[in-house]
Automatic annotation (TrEMBL):
InterPro entries: AAA+_ATPase (IPR003593), ABC_transporter-like_ATP-bd (IPR003439), ABC_transporter-like_CS (IPR017871), ABC_transporter_ATP-binding (IPR050763), P-loop_NTPase (IPR027417). This is ABC-2 type transport system ATP-binding protein. Gene3D superfamilies: P-loop containing nucleotide triphosphate hydrolases (3.40.50.300). It comes from the Bacteria. Residues 5-234 form the ABC transporter domain. GO terms for molecular function: ATP binding; ATP hydrolysis activity. The keyword ATP-binding applies. Keywords: ATP-binding, Nucleotide-binding, Transport. It comes from Thiohalophilus thiocyanatoxydans.
Amino acid sequence: MSPIVSITNLSKTYGSGFRALKNVSLDIQPGEILALLGPNGAGKTTLISIICGIVNASGGSVTVDGYDIRRDYRQTRSRIGLVPQELSLGAFEKVWHTLCFSRGLFGKPPNPAYIEQVLKDLTLWDKRNNMLMMLSGGMKRRVLIGKALAHEPMVLFLDEPTAGVDVELRQEMWALVRRLRASGVTIILTTHYIEEAEAIADRVGVINQGELLLVDDKDALMHKLGKRQLVIELETPLTTLPGELAAWKLELSEGGDKLAYTYDPHKAHTGIHELLQALADNGLVIKDVQTTQTSLEEIFVKLVKGKDEKR
Ligand SMILES: Nc1ncnc2c1ncn2[C@@H]1O[C@H](COP(=O)(O)OP(=O)(O)OP(=O)(O)O)[C@@H](O)[C@H]1O
């Protein structure tokens, strides 16, 4: 399948001389949800802004559905919907009119049935005649999504869709993103929230200081870099580990009451069965057991930190 967005060696140096993007290359496949994860100032918005034609690249190229963003700007822009970070909506405009107007800007003929569907999908239908200033923050955010969808784009960019949004609304937004994907829209979102990437992305790209450190399938990333730990709580704390347990490379907690065994859950043989047997053979009585999985957050922090330390 050809990528819907293809980014090749993209660079951006702002007028101040600051290099916000350094040779970024990335292919985005139709129908996927890609999360671009990175700390403040990593270059995420710059990347999106270049693809949407708001910022000019200093080098490299981008195609959308096979069209070049510079040469075929109108073709590419009409295929893209952008939901910006900031709420930038007129106060007195009505919801329905906002979406219809936005559609018109792209030269698309009116399609009330489509706009109705978008508003229903965004659960804004009963607010269609409300002025924007009468809406809650969460509703305004959904109007921004509706505006971005009004011209039927193939690719939707969401810049920090849930920044400053409460937990309930965040879950609602995630469900909405999934529904949009199911309707065939490719979604690229930027986020600081690792749990957001973990919850909805098919692939995760990590950006730091203008560089794309990696892009990988979310599950593969967790699989490759994630580790699982079995934490065993003992009835009686230990001062030292019995030599017979050396093979498991256990970590003994400070108080001596917990043993941590790190293993690969994807291996046919994890060694847990033998470990439990060896504990019993050494007269160690287990009080409790617990398993923990490295989160995407830990993986992300390790990646970004590792890169910073090399500088
Ligand atoms: N117009 C500009 N002129 C100069 N530097 C800029 C300009 N716009 C952005 N930058 C710088 O480029 C870097 C990347 O900014 P960008 O907004 O792309 O980051 P981001 O990853 O989206 O950050 P955040 O998560 O905080 O939104 C930052 O250091 C920023 O200060």
